[in-house]
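Consortium newsletter contribution from the modelling node. Members have asked for a concrete example of what our holo predictions look like. Here is one, prepared for the adenosine-5'-diphosphate complex that several groups have been discussing at recent meetings.
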Amino acid sequence: MKGPSLSVGGGKRTLAGRAYSTEGMVKRGFDLRLMGRLLGYLRPYVPWVFLTLVLILVASTTRQAGPYITKIAVDDHIVPGVSDGFGFLIAVYIGLLFVQFVVGYGQGWATNMIGQWAMRDVRLDMFGHLQKLPLQYFDRTPIGRLMAMNTNDVDALNEMFTDGVVSVINDLLTVVAILAYIFYMDVELGVVTCVALPVASVATVWLQTKSFEAYRVARVIFGRFAATLQETISGIEVVQLFGAEKRSADRFEEDNDSYLQARMKSTLYHSMYFPFMELSGILLMGLMLYSGGSKVMNGEIEWGVLVALLQYVPRFFMPIRDIADRFNTIQTALASSERIFELLDTDTEPPSGTHQPEAVRGEIEFRDVWFAYNDDGGEPEWVLRGVSFKVDPGDSLAIVGATGAGKSTIINLVCGFYPIQKGSVLVDGVDIREWDSEELRRRVGVVQQDVFLFAGDIEENISLGAPEVARERVLQAAHDVNADRFIDRLPKGYEQEVNERGSSLSVGQRQLLSFARALAADPDVLVLDEATSNVDTETEVWIQEAVEKLMTERTSIVIAHRLSTIRNADKILVMHHGEIREEGRHEDLLEARGIYHRLHQLQYQE
Amino acid sequence: MPINPLRPFDRYLRPYRRWITFGLIFLFIALSIQMIIPLMLKWAIDAGKSYLDASRDGLPLPPTIMGSPLSDLAMYGMVMAGLGIIQWVANFVMRWYFSGLSRYVEHDIRTDYVKHIVTLPLSFFQQNKVGDMMARATNDVEAIQRFLHHAFRMCLSGILTFFLSLVLMCSIDWSLALLALFPMPVMVVTARAVSGRMRQGYRRVQEQFGVMSSNIQENLSGARVVKAFARRLAEIAKFQGLNDEYVDRNHHLINIRSIFYPFTFFLNGVSMVVVLWLGGWRVLEGALTLGAFVAFNAYLIRMSRPMMMLGRVVDEFQRATASMMRIQAILDLRPQTLELDEDPRRLNGEIEFRDVTFSYNGHAVLEDINLRIPAGSTLAIVGRVGSGKSTLARLIPRLIHADSGDVLIDGQPVNGIPIPEIRGAVGYVPQETFLFSDTLRENVAMGTTDDKVTVERATEISHLAPDLEVLPERLETVVGERGVTLSGGQKQRTALARAVIRQPSILILDDAMSSVDTRTEEAILAELRGVMAERTTILIAHRISTVKDADHIIVMDEGRIVEEGNHETLVALDGIYSEMFRRQHLAEELDEL
Ligand SMILES: Nc1ncnc2c1ncn2[C@@H]1O[C@H](COP(=O)(O)OP(=O)(O)O)[C@@H](O)[C@H]1O
Ligand SMILES: Nc1ncnc2c1ncn2[C@@H]1O[C@H](COP(=O)(O)OP(=O)(O)O)[C@@H](O)[C@H]1O
Ligand SMILES: [Mg+2]
Ligand SMILES: [Mg+2]
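And here is the predicted structure:
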């Protein structure tokens, strides 16, 4: 009959795999530096670690005393038939059991808690670091992968701290303690026991190298599977609209098949290893029976020693076998920590400056700015080519141009989201690299082209939970963008929960909330990136009036395709392929009869 | 645990019944050997001891098997080694079948689940969180795998080991056996009591873990917003709170857990003491041989492992059944029928709405919609934010279903038209663009094998082609998640290309050019007019310049059609549309002054 088989259908796929090709099979083996860095997380808990080590020492010696007590019982009482003192011996045994219980409890508690504390610190470090990463990082890293790091990888570390390192020490001490007892009873038999060590070690190392490789492969495949699944679920509407269900399902099946295949490989190794360790145990037992038995027959040792030995042998293999499991845990954790440290070592946004003025005037200037998104050393794909312009405090600037011309990019640069390659961006005459970047962003309110809403209620989405944004400001902002109209009609008004990414609202409504969010923050500079593109003209005019009132004294930058929204701007830039082609006021630009004029004609032709 | 703990997984185990049988056979072989070993020890020691005792006391020496007591010992050792090798093979086969089984079942369940989930109606996805649906495919399936992996090997072999050891111990000395086992009931009772509390603890930990993960996920997805509003410290503070709560809940669980395991060790130790004490007395009194005493101890050790595993297996079983139920709940949902018996018919594209109403959670979104769109004509929809334009459009490809009234295509209610047929005929550009983190080519083609329009041609029609020149790898450029590395207009035009490549008879553009500049939009519309001449087109837009050439224009407000006609009649009507027209024209008029 056909049994489980190693090869299951399914070949290689390239597309979804692309994003993962860098992950996975990097370095391997036991990296001491990595380990050292990991152990660094234990530093705040050194007293606890110390305590656990002491407890482990006590636990492993007392736990192995049982067979030795049996030996004493057999040799001093049972075989010679002396009942005097037997009761006392039993009482000692029971006492030891109590000690074991208390020590075991303390040790289990402490190791687990140390693991929890250390993981809390790791998670916080990661989260804090993620907040500082540049947007470029998020542009190219699937969130599914970051999530896997935050969940599975941290889990793997936790397991290592609670079950890996400590238990290995425990296991090693157990082996040592057992050997010590055996050597103490009889040196020759101790030497015989030691024969098992190299055999067991070789088998264990073999398992490690084999199965860990298979494990790594499985993990990479699984990561890919999870990321594709996550993306498919997020985009299910498109998948269904375009009848791609079957195709997605086939992809999953393919990944799932290769995952099974990789898993079956490690299953094979495990199926060979663990029974082999059992075999070694039985062989050693037979050897002990023979050599120990002969010694008894020759009168070199007493019966109790043999009895104790036969109890020690199975105990001897258990920790060795467990070490194999634990090495797995540790190696898994090391692989995880590799990824985590890689994340923690990813360059953050360049250190922000310290400029943090009392008030912001709102003067913005670009001086010959050259910019490309691909900053990885390759040939730069220039998105902005020598852009220069200046907005005076309190003025309004409008940017028009074809899509892909680089309008949103200019805004990304004003906020300091991406580092520029050449030239400089100045706010109030100070290079933004010298600004405290968070302060700068706090003063600049952006309505981004891509709307993002958080799962939470409407009010939280406008205030973003900032305590300084009072309820009145939220209401006022909602009113200014005419969002109160629909909010008031929601069953729970401002407390109405919105789904993930706001999917329970119409796209225009989401845009209004995102607009209200920027106004509620009361910025000194307002930046609107096609902020009313999904909004009807009536609402748009309403918003425009409100914004004009709010921004009379403040600087604003507006990107829009409907020219009606920008005709009053103090200055209009016409962008084309990353360059400023025309610049001036509405009337001047019309007169110039250039691109702007053509755009205008198109929009208002009859 | 119920009588047959495998029942919930029955459907998935059935294909592997023969593996199970095979595995069971080898399990028995391995187990029998395991049970013989202590007996071997007993025989060897008893033989040796009686030989030694006899020679010491000068009694007649007991017979030996191999000629001398030492070669007897050697023989016992050799037999043990031989048995060990047989056991090795048996154990290997047993493990290979049972562990393999758990992996295959894991594979089957996961495949079923993901294949099923993509066919579920859209409303399902709106009611469930992405994280939750992911968890079923990952954590839940893993929980089942883990249980099945242990079910046979630990559970079954554990139970068998327990009872066989018990029988053999009883055959040596039944009263001692019963006395040695008196801590067992205590163990079972505490295991039960504790496992309930542990389960609750795990649940609370799991719950908090879910909260913490969703928080991270949201934070990462909204990275642009978090940065733009300088919410870093606030986000960290929030996360810290969740993180601490998670540790607190774990703390609670650890308090219970770390007492439980030492306690089982303790009870186990008590059994050992009882055997040493009472068993020792019996040997001392001559009622029991030394070999029997050793064998007794050996059996006890073999029994203790399954006993200590008991709590864990019960735990795993409970998790696995809960997980299976969560997965089954989804598998039981009715999928949409996606298979077609014959080749899809070509729809002409005449659309009609008859008294259609629609509501979300009792909140009316569309009311009394009556509308006829002749095949090949263009309908434009304008209206305020939230007036129901997108909802109306979504009714056509059956993404959502009318509460009452009928939506008809070619005179046939859409509910009667198979989904693949309808969706094959509709090219839809949703208001919110979704791109996959894949190449642009894949995003446009999405698996179509239709060669009538190539990807290149589709990108020309949608005017994406000029932008491809500046992208590093043109059509093979891989875009970021949701298309983040493209400009807004590039994303929209990719979505447009995706719709036109299918040559649909109905084309729906839901505000599909909001991020496209006027010039490009004009060019696209002109191109579409040529390509789409014989197609029904539904155009939702805000710019008058976009909609004015449509055959028919409707104005929506609060879920109703409030005005309809063509551009001229609507402008003449002096209603919402003419107001909108005036507003957009004001600018131009001002210029002409
Ligand atoms: N995050 C990004 N990573 C790489 N390329 C990008 C990114 N964002 C935009 N681009 C590219 O930069 C160019 C300009 O984009 P953008 O400034 O968004 O245009 P728009 O003028 O339409 O706002 C486009 O070709 C786009 O593909
Ligand atoms: N998934 C949903 N759940 C609940 N309400 C929704 C959902 N989608 C849309 N709505 C509501 O239905 C109304 C109409 O939405 P929609 O048709 O998208 O408007 P629009 O005319 O702007 O396209 C809005 O008030 C919106 O809040
Ligand atoms: Mg843009
Ligand atoms: Mg809409």
